[in-house]
Amino acid sequence: WAAHHLVNRGRRNDALRLLREATASTMDPQPTWEGLVLAVRAQAETLVEAGPVLARRSFERLADFAAATGDLPSAAASAVLQPARCFAEGTIAAVQEARDRLVDVGGVLPRPDIRWWPFAVDAAIALAEGALDDAAAAIEIARDEGEHLEVVMARSAALAQNLLRMLHAGELASLRPILESSAARSDAGVATVVTYGIAAAYDGDQAAAEGVARRLASSGRPLREAGMAWPQVSMLGSDLAFAVRSVELARAIWTDLAPYSGTGLVLGGIGYFGSADRSLAMLSATLGDFEPASRLAARAHREEIRRGAGAWIDLAAVAAERIKRVG
User: Fold this and answer.
1) How far apart (Å, rounded) are the C-alpha atoms in residues 94 and 84?
2) Which of 151, 214, 256, 283 lies at 20 to 30 Å from 222 by C-alpha?
3) Closest of 313, 270, 277 to residue 126, by C-alpha
C-alpha cells in the first residue's frame, strides 16, 4: 500500500524500489501477493516517464497473471486498468466492453471502488463521444454513487470530468477567476496551474497566460511533476504553449510526450484528453516545424475517427486548421 501511495504522488522510481525490496523479503509469495505487486507495478508504469511500451507490457503481465491463476484481486486490478488501455490504443467500443467487464467483476468482488468505476467510465465515454448532456448527467450520477459508496477519488474524478465537459462546451474561460488564487500559490499542483493558464488564454488575459507558461517551463519537466495528471497537463499545456507561442514550454512538454505518438492521453480511465499526436502537433507548430505539425494533426484526426471519439474528431480538425493559419 505504501508503494501504491507513492505512485499516486508521482514517485514511480521510489514505488518500484519499494516493490523490489518487499518482493525480495517474501520467501514464499502467494498468488494474491504476486498479483498485488504486478498491479501496483502496472499502475506505476502509467506515469509518463515509463513510456507507452513499458505501460502496455506491465498491463499485459498483470492480465496474463490474472487469467492464468484465477486470482480475483488481480482480475479486479486488470479490469480497473483496462478502460484506460482501450482509450489509449483501442476504440470507444472496446472501452464500453471494458466497462461491462467491470460490472461483472463488481458482481463477484463487491468492493466499493469496483462498483463505482462503471459509472465513472460511462461519463468518460459520453465525454469522448461529445454527448455533453448525457455526460453532464453521467458525471453527476458517478459523483453521487461515489459519495454513497465512500470512494475517495470520486470527487476528484468528477472535477476532471467537468473540466473536460467545459472544454468541449467552450466554457474553460469561465474558470479563470475561480482558479486565480489557488494557481498563484507556490505549492499549487501542475494540473491546477496549467488549467488556470489555458483559461486565462481563452479569456483574453495574455499576460497571465504567458506568466503561467514561463512558470511551467522553468520546472523543466512539467509532465513528470504532474504525476498521474500528466495526460491532462500534456493536452492543456500544449494548447497553452501554442496560444502564447512559448517555445520554452513546448520544448519542456515535447521531451516527455514524444514517445506517446500514436496513442491516446488518458487520465486513469475516467477522462480522455485526445490523441497525443494532436498535442504534439500543437507543440511542433509552436516550435516552428509546420510541416511535421500538419502531418501530426492529420494523423490525430484519423486516429480519432478510428477510435470513435466524436468530440476529439472535431478538436483535431480545429487544431489542423489553426496550424494551417499560422504556418
Assistant:
1) 10
2) 151
3) 270
